[in-house]
Amino acid sequence: DIQMTQSPSTLSAAVGDRVTITCRASQSPSGWLAWYQQKPGKAPKLLIYKTSTLESGVPSRFSGRGSATDFTLTISSLQPDDFATYYCQQYDTLPFTFGPGTTVHIK
Amino acid sequence: QVQLQQWGAGLLKPSETLSLTCDVYGGSVSGYSWSWIRQPPGKGLEWIGEINHSGSTAYNVSLKSAVTISVDTSKNQISLKLHSVTAADTAVYYCARNRAFDIWGQGTVVTVSS
Asked: What is the mean pLDDT of residues A79-101?
């Protein structure tokens, strides 16, 4: 199985801050890497797929990049609606696996 | 737009069978892969398994012997069965489309308790 890790596990940031979350895979998912946002009591929402492609309707302040085993999700200017938990997921190799999540708190 | 509506029993006793259904509205179940994913209380996301566009299934090895995922194209729905549940199967269960999961059901809370 491809193991996914994320850092940090939590972070505190203010509105307007630039935030970067890192995801590392135990082996390369060949770019098949997605990012999700989840708010309490809600289903996750797809933000980015194939490492850097923005899902339709997702604000352009979200961006993804990476290669091989290292990936990042960046929020260029944090908005009040962005306080949530973020997960990465590889979908190259079965079983599909998720990172443990990064929770973004209000500073 | 496509919406997924989940339904099924939310309270089970140990050893019973979990059975959930995901109705697809605004689109077809055909031509896509469909997964079930679960999230234990306060924890992260775990992929359970998928059925792909050709009807082939793949399951998480940790659950493989107990899981069945199927599609009914006539009813435009996907189903999950998980046999012999234990308290460890208590979670919110989601159905989702594709492999980068672009559309999710609303989630079903399943509690296993004697």
From this structure: 97
CA-based R_g, chain A, Å: 13
pLDDT band at B65 (very low <50, low <70, confident <90, very high): confident
- CA proximity to B111, closest of B97, B92, B96: B92
Residues from chain A that touch B101, judged by Cβ atoms under 8 A, are: 34, 36, 44, 46, 89
Question: Which residues, listed in sequence order, are joined to residue A71 by a DSSP beta bridge?
Answer: A23, A66
CA distances from B29 to A11, A85, B46, B76 (A): 39, 29, 22, 5
Q: Does the CB of B107 have a partner CB in chain A at under 8 Å?
A: yes
CA diameter of chain A: 38
Contact B61 A95 (CB under 8 A): yes
pLDDT, tens digit, for every residue of A10-38?
999 999 999 999 999 999 999 999 999 99
How many angstroms separate the CA atoms of A96 and A80, rounded?
31
